[in-house]
Write a structure and sequence with these properties.
Elements lengths: L6 E4 L5 H10 L7 H8 L4 E7 L2 E10 L4 E9 L8 H16 L5 E3 L6 H6 L25
Helix pairs in contact: 1-2
């Protein structure tokens, strides 16, 4: 296989423009420039998948670095989905968490659709009915939903 076909896992998270583009390219919701800049500054640990100099996948951990950690922004470009790259991202995030999260820390994520099967391989279990994930999308000042 040529080096152009090699996909490297890099222990760094993409920059803001790449993050915003990759979210849209992978089917995730778009994020404003302000939201992305503020949010990415709070990344505890992140990885990128790089092929021929281009970021094709990502994932990161956010949280308070003590009691709670969340796995977020796991994304693989659509033309590379279904090839085990999501598992590769999760393995790196899981290894970092197991090495760095204190005992009793709560590690969570929100699973979209069938991704729950991937996350189950890493020990994640559905919490319902004991607890249910709840969310809303913030609106800017003066915006209505």
């Amino acid at each position: 296989m040529s080096s152009a076909g090699v996909i490297q896992l890099v222990e760094s998270f993409p920059d803001t423009p790449t993050y915003r583009r990759l979210r849209v390219d992978t089917g995730l919701s778009p994020k404003s420039l302000e939201a992305a800049e503020r949010g990415l500054a709070n990344t505890l640990y992140g990885v990128s998948l790089v092929k021929a100099g281009e970021v094709i996948g990502m994932g990161r951990v956010v949280g308070d670095n003590g009691t709670v950690f969340a796995i977020v922004d796991i994304a693989v470009r659509r033309d590379h989905q279904g090839t085990g790259l999501g598992k590769r991202i999760m393995a790196a995030l899981d290894a970092w968490l197991r090495a760095n999260a204190p005992a009793s820390a709560y590690v969570m994520l929100i699973a979209d659709g069938e991704a729950k099967h991937l996350y189950a391989r890493f020990g994640f279990a559905e919490t319902a009915p004991a607890s249910i994930s709840m969310a809303y999308v913030a609106r800017g000042p003066g915006e209505e939903g």
